[in-house]
Amino acid sequence: MRWFLILILVAPLGAQEKPSQWKELFNGKDLSGWRLNPTNHWVVQDGQIAWKESAVDLWTEEEFGDFVLELEFKCSPGCNSGVFIRTGDIKDNVQTGLEVQIWDSAGKTKMEKHYCAAIYDALEPSKNAEKKIGEWNAMRIAARGPAIIVELNGEKVIDMNLDRWNEAGKNPDGTANKFKKPLKDFPRKGFIGLQDHHKAVWFRNIRIKTL
Q1: Domains of the chain
Q2: Distance between CA 71 and CA 141 in Å, rounded?
Q3: C-alpha 25 chain-centroid distance
């Protein structure tokens, strides 16, 4: 009976995610692991990455393919930002990477392809799970092969199969997009970026687990 009880207690622990599987992309102190240049004015304040006037997009030094990315963000009024994933060329990020939109769309009811948590210009979120401006939002992005899943504040809002985007400039629902080649042909591995779009935004608790 004693050994039986031990097995019952140990088995659930083995099924849990091991902390070592996760890698912190932001240490809360500085921008180690991110590309910096003289015109990059993102700053670290109170354990957060904060946008500063005249910033540029902020990119990881490392590339990632299949992964789960978790982070928190906070918007300012009129906020426009995003999280780029699998970006093959940071100088041509729109045409070589997917953008998970961050936008001041709290309270909106009819979802659009540029609202918060959308895959920009490609797929609108299924619902509006964004919190009020000034509150922290939790985002989880899972990328595995052609499958992209986005959760916002615990709600799954994007369930996407990139292989369905098989025409340049066109989404499966017939609407137009800005992409010069089908999204199914976009890189499946690349850099992760935090977008500067000239509005204040904050990020914290950024971590990733490769799959």
Answers
A1: 22-210 (2.60.120.560)
A2: 9
A3: 12
The SS3 of residue 143 is: strand
Residue 105 region, left (φ>0) first, then alpha (ψ -120 to 50), else beta? alpha
Parallel/antiparallel/unpaired status of strands 136-144 and 201-210: unpaired
pTM of the full predicted structure?
Answer: 0.88
Where helices occur in the chain by DSSP H, the ranges are 2-15, 93-96
Burial track 26-46 (b if 16+ CB lie within 10 A, e otherwise): beeeeeeebeeeeebebeeee
| AA identity, residue 110 | K
Chain Cα centroid distance, residue 82: 7
Residue with structure tokens 């091991």?
18
Give tens-digit pLDDT for 75-115. 999 999 999 999 999 999 999 999 999 999 999 999 999 99
Six-digit token string for 129 = 């799970």
